[in-house]
Design goal:
CATH architecture of the largest domain: 2-Layer Sandwich
Order of helices and strands: HEEHEEHHE
CATH class of the largest domain: Alpha Beta
Number of helices: 4
Helix content: 40-55%
CATH topology of the largest domain: Histidine-containing Protein, Chain: A
Strand order of the largest sheet: 1-2-3
Shape: rod-shaped
Structural class: alpha+beta
Largest sheet: 3 strands, mixed
């Protein structure tokens, strides 16, 4: 009798363990399964994120559409005559188009929209008749400004402040209520 040496990994498998090749196959299979599971999870997360971004963009577009409709209603309620009025709103910019009866109506619409919360810029595509007056001077109200002071600055006569007030109706409802940051139109002095 004696001890015989054999190659441990060779021979028939009789259920007493895995060969190195079998262990390697199982490790590769487990790693592949794990990688597939992780890839599937990443794909689900990416799809969820895409879906979330799409939903957020749709919600933003809906909000912008509501804002545009509100701006249109605001201009119409002011009694400003603009045919084919169309206002679009995107990322703080309002784009207004249509046909104004005159230059003053065009400017009032632009100022009414521009002096509205959330509007940072107004892109003007409003047309006016060819014989329309020249554009008015625009004045940005600063702290401490009054219509009297603005009239003195532009007309050299503070008592002409009612012209500025009238030019900015219906946006202004009281000559004593102007606020820093508002933009006012200053019509030609007559």
């Amino acid at each position: 009798m004696g001890v015989f040496d054999f190659v441990k990994e060779a021979g028939a498998k009789v259920g007493i363990g895995d060969s190195k090749a079998e262990k390697k196959e199982k490790e590769v299979a487990a790693a592949s399964a794990k990688a597939a599971k992780e890839a599937a999870q990443r794909a689900r997360e990416a799809a969820a994120n895409r879906g979330k971004r799409i939903a957020e963009r749709k919600a933003e577009k809906l909000d912008e559409s509501k804002k545009a409709a509100g701006l249109e209603m605001y201009v119409q309620n002011m009694g400003l005559e603009i045919k084919n009025l169309d206002i679009r709103f995107d990322d703080g910019m309002a784009t207004i188009s249509g046909e104004a009866k005159d230059q003053a109506t065009r400017e009032r619409a632009i100022l009414a929209i521009g002096n509205t919360q959330d509007v940072a810029q107004v892109h003007d595509d409003i047309t006016v008749p060819a014989n329309a007056k020249q554009e008015s001077v625009m004045h940005v109200v600063e702290s401490g400004d009054t219509l009297w002071k603005i009239a003195e600055e532009h007309y050299k006569d503070g008592s002409k402040y009612p012209a500025i007030f009238e030019a900015n109706k219906p946006m202004l409802t009281d000559p004593d209520l102007i606020f820093p940051g508002q933009v006012l139109r200053i019509p030609d002095a007559d």
